[in-house]
Automatic annotation (TrEMBL):
It is an enzyme of class 1 (oxidoreductase). SMART domains: Transket_pyr. Keywords: Glycolysis, Oxidoreductase, Thiamine pyrophosphate. It comes from Pseudomonas oryzihabitans. This is 2-oxoglutarate dehydrogenase E1 component. NCBIfam families: 2oxo_dh_E1 (TIGR00239), PRK09404.1 (NF006914), PRK12270.1 (NF008907).
Length: 943
């Protein structure tokens, strides 16, 4: 029956009682024996929401009233103690129910999962009859089946055991009994046991599986012949990945999914690009031949490249995006989640029905990389949930050369980390394509129904070693002796279909030749590829392309509107009781709004957000303490002291304002920053901010900074406007709470890749944040934000400073000093400026000018030259910093400063005043800190 006929029958069931009864009978049959239902109906029923006593009825009127009959299937087997039953048969009945439970829990340990047959695993004792006092003599005795979905309420022990063996101990190893939610467990029981773990597929489905395997194998053989010995991290041994992903796309599309975002490392990436996303083989061949494909940038190796395309599914057009990924393997996972969340937000897809993340992992990386755990931990949190991720593990059973389990991990499976969030895990033998198809369908249906992560562990092997230039037998001799004898997945499946009469040997060969012919001609090999895609599915970056670097941009804002917005932020709803100190902050902000108090940092930063929202820009801020602010300055989230319900004033500026999202994150840097990078690369019109609790906590996310934030544009052409706020300042708080490691960011600066700024006034942070969004240029922004300056008596601004002007890359001397008298000019950045200023004023030194560099990269050489020109009689120029000499800006920026100074006057040098070089960022003793601070200030005035 075609889908249209099914839909017709379904729709007409309102009117025809006979149709309704037929559908209900089919559904009853499906619940007990899904293989007894035609494949089209089975697929249809599998997509229905789970029906349990605790959930609403299925939203299909034809069966709404009839499915109350399912109540009889909701009964639970009551726990029975052997001591409470009277007869021997009843005691054995209890043991049979325990046997059924054991198979559900541990059947995977006896499953045939390894295509190579090298796994040596003894069946668990819990699966043996004698463990329960049962013997072969009991095999023909009839017992109640409890909740076993085998189509009958009573069966012989032989039938029960055989059904359990077929369901749980063939080529699928199911782990789902660790899930706490009984509805989810029951859903899996029904889906698995009703088909004995192996649905019956039509000849058309099986032929399509073979075609996909032919494509997967065909590309690898073609590349191996055409480019022998060239690294490609091929999929040979894991070819079932291609039909697996194909089914994810097609089945997701049938649910109405509009976008799939895929993250994966190297293994099989080229195959996915060509056979799934539809990359033209000719383009891939050009990359193998070393041709330069981009005019600007460094480019990257072919197995790091991303791609996007549109394919057609039964449910309509689906946009596919493969994320760019460096060699840091699992780091792409949170990036994908961030991109997905941004796409969902753009579509208003709060439940994750329209955009789905797919993460493809390697087994060794999945078990070994901490970011995997961090990404799992974020999966159900408010700030980062995406409605569930489909995780695919390409399990080669070896990581580079480490294959002994006791060396590779401390867990039974590489996937055990997923159990921390109760994710179901399905291990499947990669040489059984139909089993792979089955668990893929399970995975998609589970994700779409329950909106949670699920893992497919594709147990396979790698035929060529870690890469094609590798010789694996030196470290895995036994494994590669077996691999040398192992027939390919395609060959095995082709033989099975030929013997079953599904295809002929001639058809098998014709498939192979047709695919190779397409490669020879450089034609697309994805039949479902949409040649003229729907552009509405794309993120529009055109307004942000092709802009040259500009330091200045008008970020002024109407003063009256500014005050109106400030007043709206101070309107706390009736019934919201704020904490006493917070109330004082709001009172002060009221005075600042009226012009009665100078503006502090928290007020100016908040007004930057308010004005951007007013101008139509969404804002997202995350970090471990961003609602309040680590140093209690922001208070963007007010917590009602009566009921702890939060109130966010910035979300209530106007009825149809853009979104303002602010979340205190869980205690992660790497995954969270990766997520925000992915979000920012997908939302060009928004201000996306990540704030570290202390600046150097970003150390935990260094891979994201190195591989994505600072180099993503030059490697992959990926623009990103992410803003990082990193608290920085030497207040005697020790090595870990002083330095944001400025030097690390400056060392990564080149080709105008990022912006590194150290603002020192409220107006500066206001204009800097506004510039980041209003200016069409999209570059990551690293801001070293203050701690003590948040309330410093001199770090103030006025309403006029906010209403007019723009961000100043260099701030000249502000005191009334005669420029003719100035002999010494002190250059600095950040908090030390105020220490220098107070010292200069206390000593009444009229011969010293203090100039602030507020932007260290791109270095404002012209602006600094203009400032220097205003002092005609300089004899000395000193750079003063709080950081040790080998840290901070000195080593990375002194050449820029020297160039500006030498341009001012030949022979005039640049001197250093600051802490001596140190292995630690700061000292841990208050007295030592004060002594060092006094010395560097003295040196600035006298070296």
């Amino acid at each position: 029956m075609h889908e249209s006929q099914m839909q017709q029958l379904w729709d007409s069931a309102h009117l025809s009682g006979s149709n309704a009864a037929y559908v209900e009978e089919l559904y009853e049959l499906f619940l007990h024996d899904a293989n007894a239902v035609p494949e089209e109906w089975r697929t249809y029923f599998q997509k229905l929401p789970a029906v349990t006593g605790n959930s609403p009825d299925v939203a299909h009127s034809a069966i709404r009233d009839h499915f109350v009959l399912l109540g009889k299937n909701q009964r639970r087997a009551q726990p029975v103690s052997a001591g409470t039953v009277s007869s021997e048969h009843e005691k054995k009945q209890v043991e049979v129910l325990r046997l059924i439970q054991a198979y559900r829990l541990q059947g995977h340990q006896a499953a045939q999962l390894d295509p190579l047959g090298l796994w040596q695993r003894q069946p668990p004792a819990d699966l043996l009859l004698n463990h329960y006092g049962l013997t072969d003599a009991d095999l023909d005795t009839t017992f109640r089946t409890g909740e076993l979905f085998i189509g009958k309420e009573e069966a012989t022990l032989r039938e029960i055991r055989d059904a359990l063996q077929e369901t749980y101990c063939r080529t699928v190893g199911a782990e789902f009994m660790h899930i706490v939610d009984s509805e989810e467990r029951r859903w899996f029981l029904q889906r698995l046991e009703s088909v004995r773990g192996r649905p019956q597929y039509s000849p058309e489905v099986r032929t399509h599986l073979l075609e996909r395997l032919t494509a997967a194998e065909g590309l690898e053989k073609y590349l191996g012949t055409k480019y022998p010995g060239t690294k490609r991290f091929g999929l040979e041994g894991g070819e079932s990945l291609i039909p697996l992903i194909d089914e994810i796309i097609q089945r997701s599309g049938s649910y109405g999914v509009k976008e799939l975002v895929i993250g994966m490392a190297h293994r099989g990436r080229l195959n996915v690009l060509v056979n799934t996303l539809g990359k033209n083989p000719r383009d891939l061949f050009d990359e193998f031949e070393g041709k330069k494909l981009v005019e600007l940038g460094s480019g990257d190796v072919k197995y790091h490249q991303g791609f996007s395309s549109n394919v057609m599914t039964q449910g309509g057009e689906v946009h596919l995006a493969l994320a760019f990924n460096p060699s840091h393997l699992e780091i792409v996972s949170p990036v994908v989640e961030g991109s997905v969340r941004a796409r969902q937000d753009r579509r208003g897809d709060r439940s994750g029905d329209k955009v789905v993340p797919v993460a493809i992992h390697g087994d060794a990386a999945f078990a070994g990389q901490g970011v995997v755990m961090e990404t799992f931990q974020m999966s159900q949190t408010r700030a980062y949930k995406t409605g569930g991720t489909l995780h695919l593990v390409i399990n080669n059973q070896v990581g580079f050369t480490t294959n002994r389990q006791e060396d590779a991990r401390s867990t039974e499976y590489a996937t055990d980390v997923a159990k921390m969030i109760q994710a179901p895990i399905f291990h499947v033998n990669g040489d059984d394509p139909e089993a792979v198809l089955f668990v893929t369908q399970l995975a998609v249906d589970y994700r779409m129904q329950f909106k949670r992560d699920i893992v497919i562990d594709l147990v396979c092997y790698r035929r060529r070693g870690h890469n094609e230039a590798d010789e694996p037998s030196g470290t895995q001799p036994l494994m590669y002796q077996q691999i040398a004898k192992q027939r390919t997945t395609r060959d095995l499946y082709a033989d099975a279909l030929t013997q079953a009469g599904v295809v002929t040997a001639e058809q098998v060969q014709a498939q192979f030749e047709a695919y190779r012919g397409a490669l020879d001609e450089g034609r697309h090999v994805v039949a479902s590829l949409v040649k003229e895609p729907n552009r509405d599915l794309f993120v529009d970056w055109k307004p942000y392309l092709g802009h040259a670097w500009t330091a200045r941009h008008d970020t002024g804002f109407d003063l009256k509107t500014l005050q109106d917005l400030a007043n709206k932020l101070l309107q706390v709803p009736e019934g919201v009781v704020v904490q006493r100190q917070v109330g004082k902050i709001l009172e002060d902000r009221q005075k600042m709004t009226a012009g009665g108090l100078p503006l502090n940092w928290g007020f100016a930063e908040t007004m930057a957000y308010a004005t951007l929202l007013h101008e139509g820009h969404p804002i997202r801020i995350t970090g471990q303490d961003v609602g309040r602010g680590t140093f209690s300055h922001r208070h963007a989230v007010l917590h009602n002291q009566k009921d702890a319900v939060p109130y966010v004033p910035l979300q209530h500026l106007a009825e149809n304002q853009p979104s303002f999202e602010i979340y205190d994150s869980f205690l992660s840097e790497e995954a969270v920053l990766g997520f925000e990078y992915g979000y920012a690369t997908t939302t060009p019109n928004a201000l996306v901010v990540w704030e570290a609790q202390f600046g150097d906590f970003a150390n935990g996310a260094q891979v994201v900074i190195d591989q994505f934030i600072t180099s993503g544009e030059i490697k992959w052409g990926r623009l990103c406007g992410l803003t990082m706020l990193l608290p920085h300042g030497y207040e005697g708080q020790g090595p870990e709470h002083s330095s944001a490691r400025l030097e690390r960011y400056l060392q990564l600066c080149a080709e105008q890749n990022i912006q590194v700024c150290v603002p020192t006034t409220p107006a500066q942070i206001y204009h800097l944040l506004r510039r980041q969004v209003i200016r069409p240029l999209r570059k990551p922004l690293v801001v070293l934000t203050p701690k003590s300056l948040l309330r410093h008596k001199l770090a103030i601004s006025t309403l006029e400073d906010l209403a007019h002007g723009s961000f100043q890359t260099v701030i000249n001397e502000l005191d009334q000093i005669d420029a003719q008298q100035v002999k010494r000019l002190v250059l600095c950045s950040g908090k030390v400026y105020y220490d220098l200023l107070e010292k200069r004023r206390s000593e009444n030194r009229q011969d010293i000018a203090i100039v602030r560099l507020e932007q260290l990269y791109p270095f404002p050489e012209d602006d600094l030259a203009d400032v220097l020109a205003g002092y005609p009689n300089l004899e000395r120029v000193v750079w003063c910093q709080e950081e040790p000499m080998n840290q901070g800006a000195w080593y990375c920026s002194q050449h820029h400063m020297r160039r500006a100074v030498s341009g001012y006057k030949q022979g005039l040098g640049l001197e250093y005043a600051g802490r001596d070089a140190s292995a630690a960022p700061a000292c841990g003793y208050a007295s030592m800190h004060a002594e060092q601070q006094e010395k560097l200030l003295h040196d600035a005035f006298s070296v």
